[in-house]
Design a protein that fits this description.
Number of strands: 12
Order of helices and strands: HHHEEHEHEHEEEEHEHEEEHH
Number of helices: 10
Low-confidence stretches: 286-317
Shape: globular
Distance between the termini: 49 Å
CATH class of the largest domain: Alpha Beta
Structural class: alpha/beta
Strand content: 15-25%
CATH topology of the largest domain: D-Maltodextrin-Binding Protein, domain 2
Helix content: 40-55%
Mean pLDDT: 83
Length: 317
């Protein structure tokens, strides 16, 4: 039987990836740089593959390193869950978390299930509202943690996930070909609404806002019914939706970022545990079977039109 991987080496490996360098990782894991380098040499020997390659003055992950990263994060998370399960000083109490409904629909079921197994004595109160409202409620002390769309111009948050923001339409309709594009978007304070209008204005594409709602479900319904085009993060793209590209007359968008906000004065131990759990979970999310099927169809359609399947794009209401 092969010898097990060393948890400490995997933690150092993850620290290097997250910190961006061996030097910064050494400070993070309280080791010397030479000790960090030695750990990575031993991990490479154990795996039998090179994990890093020199790129100028920096080191970047090889394909095998990228492959190991997902496994390493899962192993560290499981290790932490195991240790917590046998911890006599178990966390107890309650914590209030807010999230937009599209993030809640995609991410919260798995996050809640795993957190409950690790910390069964913690009660979670979860509320769904747009990011702008969540930020205000957190400032008023009504929430302890908020999972929001990262918007450095409006609020400060810790980025925990980056994913594309797509122009989407119905797979079965051609409303995106209308001379004046009908849009389904959030309210006037919605970052994505501003982005959509600015991008279409810059490209010279005419449009009209026909549907306005804070609800991702309502916006998705307008899209699937063939009534409008919208912007949705990758996590909210559903089967039956078609992703539009520059070949369809829609400009490429910047990547979206999901962030975490913490209320000053909130129970630190509880908040740290929950935020660490959310960050680890979002970094290792895999698509559901339906999403994989929908993405495969969308990517297939894009390949037929000569578009790359990984066109960059932004993230939530």
């Amino acid at each position: 039987m092969p010898a097990p991987l060393d948890i400490d080496q995997l933690q150092t490996f993850i620290a290097i990836v997250d910190a961006g360098s061996f030097t910064r990782a050494a400070d993070k894991v309280f080791k010397t740089q030479s000790a960090v380098s030695m750990q990575m040499r031993r991990l490479e020997e154990r795996i039998g593959k090179a994990l890093f390659v020199k790129d100028g003055r920096t080191n970047r992950l090889t394909d095998e390193g990228e492959r190991l990263l997902g496994y390493a994060r899962r192993m560290i998370r499981l290790n932490n869950e195991t240790m917590a399960a046998f911890d006599d000083q178990k966390l107890e109490g309650s914590i209030r978390i807010g999230t937009p409904d599209d993030y809640a629909d995609r991410y919260m079921p798995g996050i809640i299930a795993r957190f409950a197994k690790t910390h069964p004595g913690v009660e979670l109160y979860i509320e769904c509202e747009p990011s702008v409202e969540l930020s205000a409620r957190l400032q008023r002390g009504e929430l302890d943690v908020a999972l929001v769309t990262h918007d450095p111009l409006e609020r400060s948050s810790e980025v925990v996930r980056t994913e594309p923001l797509y122009w989407v339409t119905s797979m079965n309709h051609t409303v995106h070909e209308d001379p004046v594009v009908p849009l389904a978007v959030g309210r006037t304070s919605c970052r994505w609404r501003h982005l959509a209008c600015a991008a279409l204005d810059a490209s010279g594409r005419e449009y009209q806002i026909l549907f306005t709602s804070w609800s991702a479900t309502v916006v998705a319904s307008a899209v699937l019914s063939g009534l409008a085009v919208s912007l949705l993060p990758e996590c909210a793209v559903r089967p039956g939706m078609r992703i539009l590209s520059q070949l369809d007359g829609f400009p490429a968008l910047a990547p979206a970022q999901i962030g975490l906000m913490r209320r000053p004065g909130a129970p630190k131990t509880l908040v740290d545990a929950l935020c660490g759990h959310i960050a680890a979970s979002l970094d290792n999310i895999t698509p559901s079977a339906d999403e994989e099927d929908g993405a495969a169809k969308a990517n297939g359609s894009r390949r037929e039109r000569g578009m790359r399947a990984d066109v960059p794009t932004l993230a939530a209401w």
